[in-house]
Amino acid sequence: YWELNFIPHLNIYRKDLVPAGLDVISYPKLDVKAVILSHVHMDHYGHIGFLDKEIPVVASPITLALLKGIQDMYSRGAGSEVIYFNEKVPEAKNPKILKSTGKSFGRNLISTIKCENNLSNYFWESAKKKGTIEEGSITSLEDTALPFSITPYEIDHSVYGANAYILEGDRTIAYTGDIRRHGKYEKQSNIFIQKARDAEILIIDGDSHQ
């Protein structure tokens, strides 16, 4: 991924995935407070698994639960290890090949609303069956101290749990995710659009309206 420039050359990634001989210390190290995930489509979460485990992931509880289910059923590589990841080490004969140590680490998750205890337990249950896991934390936005506020908005999309967000700090940023103005949550999409009118910066991923 690094050699082919599939991901930016930044010092924000998991140490166990960095190829031998790659001088990541020379890359810019961003002060990433959180990753804000809009929904559970691969083109949105596909490379989160590369990120340092200390960077928390913000998403709706439905999105987090769906990601966990997808990850349990099949793996699409280290980039899709969003909820938890398997620690890797280089093989002795060929350091370019990484193998699992059998130990997993849970990521720090921030749900847009408070999760029930049984949902919290669900995130680490299957990983424990495969080996040992160092559980991550699960908190809600209202219980998390960030240097800016994040307001989630339920929106319509072709998958459950999709959110748009408005961030307020030095600037106000509206992020649409993939949004459409029809379907079951059409009304909620329109509420977000009205709220986003006052934003100084608008980030649009994809939209659909009829």
Number of strands: 13
Q: What does the radius of gyration come to?
A: 18 Å
Structural class call reads alpha/beta
The mean pLDDT is: 89
Low-confidence stretches: none
Helix content: 10-25%
Q: Which strand order does the major sheet show?
A: 1-2-5-7
What share of residues are in beta strands?
Answer: 25-35%
Compressed to H and E, one letter per element, the order equals EHEHEEEHEEEEEEHEE
Question: What general form does the structure show?
Answer: globular
Q: Please count the helical segments.
A: 4
- Span of the ends, CA to CA: 39 Å
Biggest sheet overview = 4 strands, parallel
- The total domain count is 2
In words, what does this structure look like?
There is one protein chain. With 210 residues, the protein is α/β, with parallel strands linked by helices. The protein folds into 2 domains: 1-145, no CATH class; 147-210, no CATH class. The chain has 4 helices and 13 strands. The protein has helices spanning 42-45, 61-73, 117-130, 186-196; strands spanning 35-36, 57-59, 84-90, 98-106, 109-111, 132-134, 138-140, 149-154, 163-168, 172-175, 178-180, 201-203, 206-208. A 4-stranded parallel beta sheet has the order 1-2-5-7. A 4-stranded mixed beta sheet has the order 8-9-10-12, covered by helices on one side. A 3-stranded mixed beta sheet has the order 3-4-6, with helices on one face. The longest helix is centred in the middle third of the chain and has 14 residues, at 117-130. The chain is globular, with a radius of gyration of 18 Å. 30% of the residues are buried.
